[in-house]
């Protein structure tokens, strides 16, 4: 290793008044921030998906782990400091309403990694565990 320090552009701070990273027309504090800090819980699988995307955007590992199914939850999470999540597209859902016990959410998450724009598409499975929506795995 060369001993040179890599500098990354500072990550813009997301405040309670900032637009929510999940893409809904609401301030972060009233939208996903309320789920992240425990004031509310996700009523649908899609809402949980959006809040988990926002948790990646604001680097809230505790929320991500808390909303991961106990059978598939990793022991810890680390974030790549050169990655910035930029936009979420929900492509489709099956079930996952307040009246269901499971559902899927198909989405495309856009990001910039070390200066290069890209996206990740996934179809995720969600179930209720102890009455709350949690992420299980990619379908």
Automatic annotation (TrEMBL):
Cited InterPro entries: NTF2-like_dom_sf, YchJ-like, YchJ-like_M
Residue stretches spanning the membrane: none
SUPFAM superfamilies assigned: NTF2-like (SSF54427)
Domain YchJ-like middle NTF2-like positions: 44-136
Xref: Pfam families: YchJ_M-like (PF17775)
Family membership noted in the UniProt record: Belongs to the UPF0225 family.
Protein's UniProt name: UPF0225 protein AB0L03_15815
Organism expressing this protein natively: Streptomyces roseoverticillatus
Organism classification: Bacteria, Bacillati, Actinomycetota, Actinomycetes, Kitasatosporales
């Amino acid at each position: 290793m060369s001993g040179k320090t890599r500098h990354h552009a500072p990550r813009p701070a997301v405040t309670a008044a900032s637009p929510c990273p999940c893409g809904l027309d609401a301030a972060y504090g009233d939208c996903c921030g309320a789920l992240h800090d425990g004031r509310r819980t996700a009523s649908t699988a899609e809402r949980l998906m959006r809040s988990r995307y926002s948790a990646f955007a604001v680097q809230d590992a505790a929320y991500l782990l808390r909303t991961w199914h106990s059978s598939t939850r990793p022991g810890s999470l680390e974030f790549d400091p050169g990655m910035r999540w930029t936009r979420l597209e929900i492509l489709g859902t099956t079930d996952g309403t307040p009246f269901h016990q499971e559902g899927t959410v198909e989405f495309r998450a856009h990001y910039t990694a070390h200066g290069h724009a890209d996206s990740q598409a996934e179809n995720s499975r969600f179930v209720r565990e102890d009455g709350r929506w949690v992420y299980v795995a990619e379908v």
